[in-house]
């Protein structure tokens, strides 16, 4: 504590100045958000038509400027990534909370999860490119993008699931154990169902991360824009997600028409992010009610 | 009593039979893995003809004589490929033996390793591909995917069966444990890869030349990244200088002064700000901030708008949610008694906030700031869209190139030393991030210790 009294002489002036600053800062934050949302939505929403969402894209043909292939590519990446990453992440959260004793392994897992969440996505992109595209010979393909994203979202899933597993009251577990159930049965039958809203939150957060990701996918899943013909061929070819489509169209746009495509894509992305955000909120509310 | 013993015996008998079946299947699958190496499982497609090689051939044949119109040469099969093929057979057989010797855990490990060996074959045969390509005759492609996936799955299934003979509980624990090692494994592999791919260029260019060289010109093979490093640092510092005061004050607003109703509106706004994809920030910056800088009267004529300043403004917005969230959590954690004591001494609420609450939460706030630094230094797409991407020394109104954008800009068309230099930039960026990360861990640990006191 400083030796001078907390009761300052210039209290009145500094007090009101500081108070104004606080309100100003909060106002700046809100205004920035409203500004970005408003700007994108006002300019983008008028161009979102059913045709825009349901037609393929072509760089040559001015009639084909839809985003259907990008929506499908994004879906592919979300689904495949979650299919790989969710089981690994949830199992690892179960191990950390239910089995592991404090030790070197647990410390290593905690540390590496933290490190993983701090690595910027461009590094994931470089890594994914050298390992999955070049070394594993997947070329620049959706599958390579999925494998890269799997590592990207692992920390999100592990940490959120872990928190919800810890929150399950231990009396539930003890009750089940006392009735003679095995440990695995307790985990799968009692702990995991109780933590389900948390697991769901983890998955939704991961979906949000994948939908918004661009730098890690630029070199791994690439910027192809062709309509998928069959599933297996498609995941082995390059395909751009909505974010990369926005990036490409915004950079290459020379005409107002092209800019409108970028605006509409940005608006679709924002609406998607907003819906995912609402979904998280809803699930968290359910969790709190329980 | 008698009946109870009988049921027990029956259950015991049932379990023993089940275990025997699992064992038999695991042994059979192991045999399939071992045998698969004697069937053709790698295909070289060369011009129009297809050569299917079995594992045995791959391990014993000296190489392939490739003849073209001008050149011909012997393409040898790499030693590592041979070792991997032999190891695949040996490990599968070892798994069978260990299982019969009643060592299921070791047998499972052997099976998993046997399942992974094709991966090494896959990686090492790329040498064959480069050798053939360098002879300049024809493209050769190696088709491999299905046998590789097959072996991997067989290995995993038989390993699971091995462990299952010890009971479901043990199996589950092992599976959970292996899954949790994935993140450890990825970090180790990423670190190794970034080092391995980044080091050669640094060795070739020279560390001093690379880090402190002022010129980056790929066409004349000049790879100095001082401008990129300084731009990254300047951009991050500027974003933090702008973002931190606003962020902390917003956090104060949310946790201390706002009425609950207002906070309920502002908090989701901050959360939404965190969820907006970085491309959208870049898009917004490109269309709003860049033209605003270009037409801002004092700057007019001096700048095109694509500048360090634009990057700083966008990054400041992007680090806001991180700083607000972490600082708010830290402020919430300050015990209410601190505030009460200060107020009881006659301090005003505002004085209490700035003299008591914020100092008490300072380690948490610092952690938030460091997280913000990490986010700003690693941001790519938003910066690439507003910063102009010319590798200049940083100046507020001039176009600059960051470390991250340096990689992203040239990756698609680079080759040779140029590409290696990009990987080396990745290494430098990785080192920066690790320093940020470790100081974050250190500071948040210190915060926890302080709370414990």
Q: What is the count of DSSP helices of chain B, taking H or I runs of 4+ residues?
A: 18
Largest interface: A-B, 92 and 97 residues
Mean pLDDT of chain B: 85
Could you tell me the radius of gyration of chain B in angstroms? 31 Å
In CATH, what is the class of the domain at 68-241 in chain A? Mainly Alpha
Oligomer: heterodimer
What is the CATH superfamily classification of the domain at 68-241 in chain A? MetI-like
Distance between the termini of chain B: 59 Å
CATH class of the largest domain in chain B, named: Mainly Alpha
Structural class estimated from helices and strands of chain B: mainly alpha
Distance between the termini of chain A: 44 Å
Number of helices of chain A: 13
Uncertain stretches of chain B: none
Please name the defining characteristics of this protein.
heterodimer; A: 290 residues; mainly alpha; MetI-like fold; 13 helices; globular; B: 453 residues; Butyryl-CoA Dehydrogenase, subunit A, domain 3; 2 domains; three-stranded antiparallel sheet; two-stranded antiparallel ribbon; 7 strands; 7% strand; flat
If you had to describe this structure to a student in words, what would you say it looks like?
The complex is a heterodimer of chains A (290) and B (453). With 290 residues, chain A is mainly alpha-helical. Helix content of chain A is 75%, strand content 0%. In chain A, α1 (11-44) packs across α13 (256-289), α4 (104-118) packs across α6 (142-166) and α7 runs antiparallel to α8. The longest helix of chain A has 34 residues, at 11-44. Chain A is globular, with a radius of gyration of 24 Å. Chain B is mainly alpha-helical and 453 residues long. Chain B has 18 helices and 7 strands. Chain B has helices at residues 2-36, 55-60, 79-100, 104-124, 126-134, 145-164, 168-205, 207-212, 226-257, 260-275, 278-295, 308-332, 336-344, 349-360, 362-378, 381-386, 403-410, 416-452, and strands at 40-46, 49-54, 63-67, 72-76, 140-143, 216-217, 222-223. Chain B has a 3-stranded antiparallel β-sheet. A two-stranded antiparallel sheet of chain B has the order 3-4. Chain B has a two-stranded antiparallel sheet with strand order 6-7. At the A-B interface, α1, α3, α4, α5 and α6 of A face α4, α7, α9, α10 and α11 of B.
């Amino acid at each position: 504590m400083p030796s001078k009294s907390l009761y300052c002489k210039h209290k009145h002036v500094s007090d009101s100045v500081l108070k104004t600053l606080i309100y100003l800062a909060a106002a700046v934050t809100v205004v920035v958000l409203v500004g970005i949302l408003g700007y994108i939505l006002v300019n983008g929403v008028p161009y979102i038509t059913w045709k825009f969402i349901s037609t393929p894209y072509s760089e040559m043909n001015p009639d084909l400027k839809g985003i259907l292939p990008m929506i499908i590519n994004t879906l592919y990446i979300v689904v495949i990534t979650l299919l790989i990453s969710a089981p690994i992440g949830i199992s690892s959260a179960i191990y950390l909370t239910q089995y592991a004793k404090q030790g070197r392994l647990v410390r290593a897992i905690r540390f590496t999860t933290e490190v993983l969440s701090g690595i910027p996505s461009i590094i994931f992109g470089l890594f994914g490119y050298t390992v999955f595209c070049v070394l594993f010979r997947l070329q620049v393909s959706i599958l390579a993008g999925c494998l890269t994203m799997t590592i990207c979202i692992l920390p999100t899933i592990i940490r959120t699931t872990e928190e919800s597993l810890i929150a399950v009251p231990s009396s539930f577990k003890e009750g089940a154990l006392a009735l003679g159930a095995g440990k695995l049965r307790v985990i799968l039958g009692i702990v995991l169902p109780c933590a389900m809203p948390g697991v769901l939150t983890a998955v939704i957060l991961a979906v949000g991360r994948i939908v918004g990701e661009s730098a890690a996918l630029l070199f791994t899943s690439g910027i192809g824009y062709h309509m998928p013909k069959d599933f297996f061929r498609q995941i082995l070819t390059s395909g751009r997600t909505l974010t990369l489509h926005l990036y490409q169209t915004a950079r290459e746009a020379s005409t107002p028409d092209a800019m409108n495509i970028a605006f509409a894509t940005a608006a679709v992305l924002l609406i998607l992010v907003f819906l995912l955000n609402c979904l998280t909120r809803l699930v968290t509310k359910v969790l709190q009610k329980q | 009593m008698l009946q109870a013993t009988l049921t027990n015996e029956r259950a015991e008998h049932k379990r023993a039979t089940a275990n025997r079946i699992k064992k038999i299947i695991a042994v059979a699958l192991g045999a399939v893995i071992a045998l698969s190496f004697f069937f053709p499982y790698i295909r070289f497609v060369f011009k129009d003809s297809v050569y299917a090689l079995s594992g045995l051939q791959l391990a014993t044949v000296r190489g392939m004589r490739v003849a073209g119109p001008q050149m011909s040469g012997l393409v040898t099969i790499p030693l590592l490929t041979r070792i991997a093929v032999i190891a695949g057979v040996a490990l599968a057989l070892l798994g069978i033996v260990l299982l019969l010797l009643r060592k299921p855990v070791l047998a499972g490990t052997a099976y998993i390793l046997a399942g992974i060996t094709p991966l090494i074959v896959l990686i090492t045969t790329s040498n064959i591909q480069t050798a053939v390509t360098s002879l300049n005759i024809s493209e050769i492609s190696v088709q491999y995917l299905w046998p590789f996936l097959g072996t991997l799955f067989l290995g995993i299934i038989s390993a699971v069966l091995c462990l299952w003979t010890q009971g479901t509980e043990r199996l589950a624990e092992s599976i959970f444990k292996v899954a949790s090692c994935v993140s450890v494994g990825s970090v180790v592999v990423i670190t190794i890869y970034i080092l391995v791919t980044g080091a050669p260029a640094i060795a070739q260019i020279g560390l001093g030349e690379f880090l402190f060289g002022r010129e980056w010109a790929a066409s004349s093979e000049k790879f100095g990244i001082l401008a990129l490093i300084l731009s990254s640092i300047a951009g991050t510092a500027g974003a933090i200088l702008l973002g931190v005061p606003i962020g902390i004050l917003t956090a104060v607003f949310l946790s201390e002064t706002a009425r609950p109703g207002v906070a309920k509106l502002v908090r989701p706004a901050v959360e939404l700000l965190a969820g907006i994809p970085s491309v959208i920030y870049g898009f917004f910056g490109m269309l709003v901030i860049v033209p605003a800088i270009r037409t801002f009267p004092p700057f007019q004529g001096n700048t095109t708008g694509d500048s360090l300043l634009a990057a700083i403004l966008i990054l400041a917005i992007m680090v806001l949610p991180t700083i607000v969230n972490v600082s708010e959590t830290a402020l919430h954690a300050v015990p209410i008694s601190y505030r009460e004591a200060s107020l009881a001494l006659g301090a005003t609420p505002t004085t209490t906030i700035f003299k008591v609450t914020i100092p008490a939460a300072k380690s948490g706030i610092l952690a938030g700031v460091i997280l913000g630094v990490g986010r700003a230094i690693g941001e790519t797409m938003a910066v690439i869209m507003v910063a102009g991407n010319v590798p200049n020394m940083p100046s507020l109104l001039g176009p600059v190139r960051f470390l991250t954008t340096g990689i992203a800009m040239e990756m698609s068309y680079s080759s040779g030393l140029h590409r290696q230099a990009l990987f080396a930039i990745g290494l430098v960026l990785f080192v920066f991030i690790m320093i940020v990360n470790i100081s974050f861990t250190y500071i948040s640990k210190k915060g926890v210790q302080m709370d414990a006191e």
